Amino acid sequence: MDFSYFDDDFESLLNANPEVLDECDFAAEVDLAKRSSNSLVEFISSIDFGLKFKPYSVQLSFMRKLFETLEQNKIGIFESPTGTGKSLSLLCGSLTWLNRRRNNHIEKLERTVAEKTKIIKETALENWLEEYDLKAEAQKSLDEAKTEVDQIRRVQERLCKKFILGKRKLLDTATLSEDDNNELHDNDSELLIDYESEDDLDAASEKTVNIDERFDDEPECILKPKIYYCSRTHSQLAQIAQELCKSIYEESTTMVTLGSRQTLCINESVRKLKSVGLMNEKCLDLQKESSKVKKSDHGCSKKKKSKCPFLRRDDVLHMGTAVHACPYYACRKSVAAADIVLMPYQMFFNKATRNTCGLSLSECVVIVDEAHNLLETIESMYRFEICFQKLNFAKQQLQQYIQRYQSKFSAKNLLHLRHFETVLKFSANFLEKAVGKGESYSINEFACLIGIDSINCFKLHEFIEKSHLCEKLRGFTSRAEKYVSDQAEQFSVGLFHLVMSYISCFTNKIGDGRFLIEKTPSSSRIIFILLNPAAFLEDVFKEARSVVLAGGTMEPISELKSRLFDILSIPEQRIVQFSCGHVVSNKNILPIILHTGPGGNVLKFDFSSRTSAAIFQELGNCLVQLSKIIPGGIVCFLPSYNYEETSELLQELAVKKEIFREPKTASDVNSVLSKYADVVIKFGTNNSSEKNGAFLFAVVGGKMSEGINFSDALARCVIMVGLPYPDITSSELKIKMKYLDEHVSNNKNAAVNAGREFYENICFKAVNQSIGRAIRHKDDYSAIIFLDSRYRNRKLWSKFSSWIRHLIVEADSFSTACNSLKKFYSQFEDTDDTSSTSCDEPPQWFIENVQETFFTIQYRFKRITVLLRKLFVKQNFYDKPATVALFAQNFIPSNNVHNLCKPPNTTTWIIFHPYIKSKNAN
């Protein structure tokens, strides 16, 4: 290793600790870009991707294809069913590429240094002017290369030192004082606008917005390339962070999770506020010069000089509280030196937020997990609605504000305020007089209709944002005693940020969205519908080196191509599509289409049949007969609650299975799941008893159709009742379908009827997510029953996930289906879900499946309370799916117990083998 850029002390430190040389050794690597495609494939096939256990074959294929995609600057669509280790494959594949890429870059820089140094020392030309120019150019390149190498080496040296010493200093942040003096100052000067002209915007912004720059006492070297990893929720990001523990990159990778103040702030005076906008305002107010900043003895804000620990959000909050440091700013400051940055969709796909956090996409890789609903997520993020009452209230408050301070505003600021008042006034007047329902308008049409087409909404939005008008109006409203009422308080919370979002709707491209007017007897509202989500993804796909869209079920992929890639003009040859099979054997899955019931009646649960007593009678008979055959748990997905509530055969069904229903409130989900699992485990697979398990009714697209794993006996069968098409009478759906027919269908690569295709895709995305709840690991088995004759349309089969598509069976009759089910379950009769043989390591199914909730189960004639949680351990611990996790305080594991990990507190996580006597479970 070349230590020329390290000091002597650090060289000695490394020599004394050879185990960390791999973390900072930038050995020369072959430039992969110069390899031929065949040579590249051969090289990739020999790469060790750093898993601590032997990966599945599908994982190896996944990681190799991912490495190739990133190396060739391509766009990837990766589909890997749940239970195949998708998250770990994404991490290890991308981090392996990242490390090699950085090593190559360092080697090139060092080569440049050597070459340019040689030119400067040895070049001697007859023409001294040419020699001078050549050496000057070489010196410039030498200085640039040395500067970049020095920056990277300093970061690498710092990380390695702190890893060896085992010291974790505080994150770079300033803690906020919680003194009473931090409250909003009660004087009018704070409510006045100091916005003078467009030329002063940047200066004003620097004074008020970039307050956190006060903490930049020591600039960071921004390591590139980076990996930006996005998912839908913080809980999913926390799971991704802990997935890293199963790879050799656990100690050498710097990872940070970004979030909003709503998720990361620990200041109680900020956390108690009701909206993100108010929290942002309060936080910035607390950072004014009157607030205190906790400094270390030498006067600098506290800094973390080691790598970022990949902690869960709760752990970061706990640490921040313990050391009086701000997790929100700490995470933002850690981005510069991070290898991988985790963040939710709402942050990453908002360009303003990315800029605020200093996220540069150049040369970087973007991984979007759970990307099957990416377009819908973007549409939801930018969808907007506001009612007449809120518009009218905002107008009144703005008028009061202008009247109170009119004499103190400059002419230009007053003009902006009058324009703002006009927008609110005309919008409220139009909404008050609106008649009919479902009328929609383009952005220009609506601006002309309400009479604000002469107002520059771009300038107005800029004025509102950079003058902090929302904050000032909120402060003014809270002080106006005559407006302090329950209704005023309800409307004013986040109201002015909502109104600013309304203004921003007029800044979209003309064809990218439409305004919809909905009027009810009690109220009326304006809705903005984003029709072209690709417009908000364009900069990501153009700036990033590679973008990877990954999910357990990415079908139907045709929608991504027509609504995203074609619109962004991404060439076909740049798109890589990868779909791997399931790790489970084909004999463990039985997907059956049932088009008739026990009475021979055709099953078709469309809109017209929802009031048919006969169809509900046939459905009930189906479920009763199936429950007598299927052991363990059955999860039945219904189009709506109406189906389950209408059937009168639930009492007969309850004889064989105990019935549970998806709750209508999210807070009750864990309780229902706990009771359901308790019953399933209690009765096991004993068909000779009066009951043989439980029956759980859930709703497609509801709280249990996505993100919850029903592994093993919890779902020995998943039943899909009907096709969950959306309401075709919905005004929003009609607008979207019409837009797609007019814009996407004209594209030569798009479907003939893009609106209809979109309508069907909504349905099958929901179907694929629902049936994916069943098979969760390689030893799992389950039947999947489709109860509807429309599933027989083979043109629709292409929309199923690839892992199930080729296994679908059409039953000639109900009796034929029952015989197939009996034969299917008979091959697993010797499998005991409550016993297990001993082995050495935990299996993939356990890693992917365990739920974070308490269960009380009957186990070997004793009741034990267990906590099932997503745990991160090695593969092949047990052969059978009966392992449980126990929760213990300060528990010293015996030889029978495998100690997994220790969170920041004294809690120890352990796994219990089923054969262990319950005497150990105290």
Brief sketch in words of this structure:
It contains 34 helices and 23 strands. It has 922 residues and is of the alpha/beta class. It folds into 5 domains: 8-165, no CATH class; 235-358, P-loop containing nucleotide triphosphate hydrolases (Rossmann fold, 3-Layer(aba) Sandwich); 383-534, Fumarase C, Chain B, domain 1 (Orthogonal Bundle), CATH 1.10.275; 586-826, Rossmann fold (3-Layer(aba) Sandwich); 844-920, no CATH class.
Describe this structure in words.
The two termini are 53 Å apart. The chain is 42% helix and 13% strand. By secondary structure, the chain is an alpha/beta fold. Strand 8 and strand 9 form a beta hairpin. The chain folds into 5 domains: 8-165, no CATH class; 235-358, Rossmann fold; 383-534, Fumarase C, Chain B, domain 1 (Orthogonal Bundle); 586-826, Rossmann fold; 844-920, no CATH class. The strands form 5 sheets. It has a 7-stranded parallel sheet with strand order 3-4-2-5-10-1-11, with helices on both faces.
